[in-house]
Specification:
Chain lengths: 226, 255, 221
């Protein structure tokens, strides 16, 4: 009896069949958003870390403020601010755009700090060797230091990228039709919790392989040592 | 080859000239007026206790350290001062480091070709054949595809020498090239250095390899306390040093 | 410019919102006070289990950790809050938040503690065991103190993440800080209450973030 009720409410076959296409559509949105956020966030973050390497006071200061504020604020606060605040001053963005922009910037902030830590941890001798062969500062940064720095910080970078792409679920709050957004709609229409089960499964299918891959990466990196 | 050593050096014709070089770290003076002239194809060995300023002097020669005053000249061209393209000048000065400083993310070949391609703008094929030639000179052409982590310390240092050599520098600086190596690996590196010298390279070497200095150097310079205490042919410095400080330093090595 | 100040930095509205937002801040801190110790403790146990010599224990722990690292916390929260009533279990928003965040947090804390435990050289355990200490004593007196020290920045940054995470509680109408600010925003059609909440998050978390950055600079990767 208990079990029957559970199955009926959480794995109701009729509901599952009816809403699976919707959840799949949501999964497409989640994956698309995730890819866009990872590409934009990591590129922007690495770019800012490089800019900081030139040690121009005004730039460095601005970058640190940017990184600190975006790391300190809950993403949901930023999402609400952008979605409900900006239209009041005439900037109207779609919920998809707001979610993409906010999470890309948040990932950029974390990536900047992580890549910058990698740049500062690259031995001074690498700069010296590169400069002694006539490479310019920019060339030494691009060809010698940055590749090593990025390699060093791939595990924390991967973890952070996964954590932030998972936050695409926050899009539900402003009506992005991603997995969770579709599932909550379906749940209220069907008066049944099965769409939520489906959503949880969808997230596990998308993110569990990434989590396992990141674990594997981390293991490989710590075994190799410095 | 005849020794080109001359008691005072002839500044006008020197390949590498260091003039009145001063450098301090904070309030601590490290170099108190160094004058040194290295002639074409000459190998000059710099000896001295730790803290004598010999490494700093060497690092000033390609401006890895900024001198406070004084001048560095390569074949009469000033390294310091306005309007100097430092990156152009550095191509003429090869440097070999104590800790090799090979790029861990690039193969031996990649380590050598990087500056050829990015600084000299050589096309890939030309850069690679030049790099293979340089690796052949250090006896490692068969290791071109290996990464630094797959090479022994001695092999890594030889790749580092090839990296500097490939740019066809006017002068090469060696900063304690063997002190990070296990004793049994030192010989290979010294052999390579001897080959490089025999091909006519101008070399300034900071090192503690006394025996090698005695055999191979054209001139030995003894530094202490930020000044050059005395210099001369190896027979003279090792056989009959005129300064008390030199004698004290050398006696520690003769045991 | 005028419009930006009017819409985002309206002092008058902020003052009106302040009592409610501060009350929300109290709830935020209360959630943290419950979730952080529980999550850290749960994480510690999961971490110890995940380095166990027993295969079944080890893989169960790793499976638990990976599962809850893969599910977005908001999904978990909604599943618990909106889903459990379908199973006839009525729970308050606070309990839903506490349970959801406990599961999510334990997984993240477990990863940090696990990395810390694995960072302690094997020789340490061997030395402790050679002096006659039991496995438990070794873990408690030798391994864990070093493990915690090695991952202190990561532990701190996890705490920051938990504080930020509490904002999700607003989605299930738990009256924490963001919920309070959002409420006033919807009444005034003005974003200033959200800016006020953002400011309070900054005051709360900026010192921690600076501290973490300083720690990280000292530790060479």
């Amino acid at each position: 009896m208990q079990m029957d009720m559970f199955l009926d409410q959480f794995l109701n076959q009729a509901v599952l069949v009816k809403y699976t296409p919707l959840i799949l559509k949501g999964a497409g949105v989640t994956v698309l958003l995730s890819v866009l956020i990872v590409l934009t966030g990591l590129t922007l973050g690495a770019g800012l870390a490089c800019l900081r390497a030139y040690r121009i006071k005004a730039f460095s200061f601005a970058i640190v403020i940017f990184a600190d504020v975006l790391r300190a604020l809950p993403p949901l606060v930023l999402i609400l601010l952008a979605f409900f605040g900006l239209p009041n001053i005439g900037v109207v963005l779609s919920s998809f755009t707001v979610l993409f922009l906010v999470l890309s910037l948040v990932l950029a902030a974390f990536a900047e700090e992580i890549v910058w830590a990698g740049i500062t941890a690259t031995p001074k001798g690498q700069w010296e060797a590169a400069r002694s062969t006539g490479l310019t500062f920019t060339q030494a940064l691009c060809y010698v230091v940055l590749p090593q720095a990025v390699r060093m910080v791939i595990p924390p970078l991967t973890n952070r990228a996964i954590a932030i792409t998972k936050m695409t679920a926050l899009g539900m709050v402003i009506g992005v039709p991603d997995i969770l957004g579709q599932a909550t709609t379906a749940q209220s229409f069907s008066a049944n919790a099965s769409p939520l089960t489906l959503a949880a499964i969808a997230y596990v299918v998308i993110f569990l392989p990434l989590v396992i891959a990141s674990r594997w990466l981390e293991q490989r990196f710590t075994q190799k040592g410095s | 080859m005849a020794s080109t050593y001359n008691e005072k050096g002839t500044p006008s014709s020197a390949t590498l000239s260091v003039r009145a070089l001063h450098k301090s770290f904070g309030v601590l003076p490290v170099l108190k007026g160094i004058d040194l002239h290295v002639q074409r194809s000459e190998m000059v060995f710099v000896l001295g206790p730790s803290g004598s300023g010999k490494s700093t002097m060497l690092r000033c020669c390609n401006l890895l350290e900024e001198p406070d005053s004084g001048a560095i000249l390569i074949e009469g061209d000033k390294l310091t001062g306005p309007g100097v393209d430092l990156n152009k000048m550095r191509q003429r000065i090869g440097m070999v480091f104590q800790s090799f400083n090979l790029y861990p993310h690039l193969s031996a070949l990649g380590n050598v070709t990087l500056a050829l391609r990015r600084v000299l703008k050589m096309p890939r094929e030309q850069a690679e054949s030049e790099a293979i030639a340089a690796l052949t000179k250090v006896g490692l052409s068969n290791r071109a595809g290996h990464f630094p982590s797959q090479l022994s310390g001695g092999q890594q240092q030889r790749v580092a020498i090839a990296r500097a050599l490939a740019l066809k520098p006017t002068v090469m600086l060696f900063d304690e090239p063997t002190s990070a190596l296990d004793p049994e690996l030192v010989g290979d590196v010294l052999d390579v250095m001897r080959d490089v010298k025999e091909q006519g390279m101008t070399m300034l070497v900071v090192s503690h390899e006394m025996k090698f200095a005695r055999d191979a150097a054209d001139r030995v310079v003894f530094m202490d306390g930020g000044v050059i205490v005395e210099q001369g042919p190896p027979e003279q410095i090792f056989g009959a040093p005129t300064q008390e400080r030199t004698r004290t330093f050398l006696s520690r090595f003769h045991g | 410019m005028e419009a930006i100040i009017q819409q985002f930095f309206n002092i008058e509205i902020m003052i009106k919102a302040l009592p409610l937002v501060l009350k929300g801040l109290g709830v935020t801190l209360l959630i943290c006070a419950v979730v952080i110790p529980l999550g850290a403790l749960g994480g510690l146990f999961a971490a110890i289990a995940s380095v166990s010599k027993n295969r079944a224990v080890r893989w169960t722990a790793i499976g638990f950790v990976d599962l809850f690292r893969a599910i977005p916390p908001l999904v978990l929260l909604i599943f618990i809050y909106a889903g459990l009533p379908f199973a006839g279990i009525q729970i308050s928003p606070f309990v839903a938040v506490a349970v959801g965040f406990f599961l999510n947090n334990s997984a993240y804390f477990a990863e940090v503690f696990r990395a810390g435990i694995l960072s302690v050289p094997k020789g340490q355990t061997e030395a402790a065991r050679s002096t006659g200490m039991t496995q438990g004593q070794t873990l408690f007196w030798v391994t864990l103190p070093q493990a915690v020290r090695n991952v202190l920045p990561d532990l701190l940054s996890n705490v920051v993440e938990v504080v930020k995470l509490t904002s999700l509680a607003s989605v299930v109408s738990l009256g924490e800080m963001l919920h309070a600010a959002g409420l006033v925003r919807s009444l005034t059609y003005n974003a200033s209450p959200l800016v006020l909440a953002a400011g309070l998050y900054l005051v709360l978390l900026w010192p921690l973030i600076r501290l973490i950055s300083r720690f990280e600079r000292k530790i060479d990767t």
